[in-house]
Design a protein that fits this description.
Helix content is 27%, strand content 27%. By secondary structure, it is α+β, with helices and mostly antiparallel strands. The chain has a single domain, classed as 2-Layer Sandwich (Alpha-Beta Plaits). The strands form two sheets. Strands 1, 2, 3, 4, 5 and 8 form a six-stranded antiparallel beta sheet that branches. Strands 6-7 form a two-stranded antiparallel sheet.
Length: 158
């Protein structure tokens, strides 16, 4: 049973996959985000193709979703992990190829540092596959110098 937050919070979630039909997995996950308890999908970026960053395997399909949610951050994280598991996500080693990866990037203006969750996501500023789709739907959240810093990473809008 979930405990709704008092007021809705705007949250941003990065989605990625590079196993199976990655594009279909990301699209299905985008739809599933809007069906989470107390949550509405406000916007979604286009899909992007990116080379693995600090990982191996096939290219990734990525996107970012903007949510309005009443779920507290730890419960939202739990719901994201349940969606990953439902999509067959396995974690055999760090940065392994995956059927679905969902990362909570931002949760309102919250700063969270716990053993299970860090928000803002600690590596989002290093990743073009996060910053470009995030800038598409929330340009105010991505400073130009951050985009320039990841300009050498291979990523293409689909």
């Amino acid at each position: 049973m979930t405990t709704p937050a008092r007021e809705p919070v705007r949250a941003y979630v990065a989605l990625g996959a590079n196993l199976g039909d990655a594009a279909a997995s990301v699209r299905q996950a985008l739809d599933a985000l809007g069906r989470l308890p107390g949550t509405r999908l406000l916007s979604r970026s286009r899909l992007y193709r990116s080379a693995p960053h600090q990982a191996s395997g096939p290219d990734f399909i990525n996107a970012v979703a903007e949510l309005e949610t009443r779920l507290p951050a730890p419960e939202l994280l739990q719901a994201l992990q349940a969606l990953e598991q439902a999509a067959g996500r396995e974690r055999p080693y760090p940065n392994a190829p995956r059927t679905l990866d969902l990362d909570l990037l931002l949760y309102g203006e919250a700063r969270i540092a716990s053993p299970r969750l860090t928000v803002p996501h600690p590596r989002m500023g290093e990743r073009a596959f996060v910053l470009l789709p995030l800038a598409e739907i929330a340009p105010e959240r991505v400073p130009a110098p951050a985009l320039a810093a990841v300009g050498d990473q291979s990523i293409t809008a689909l």
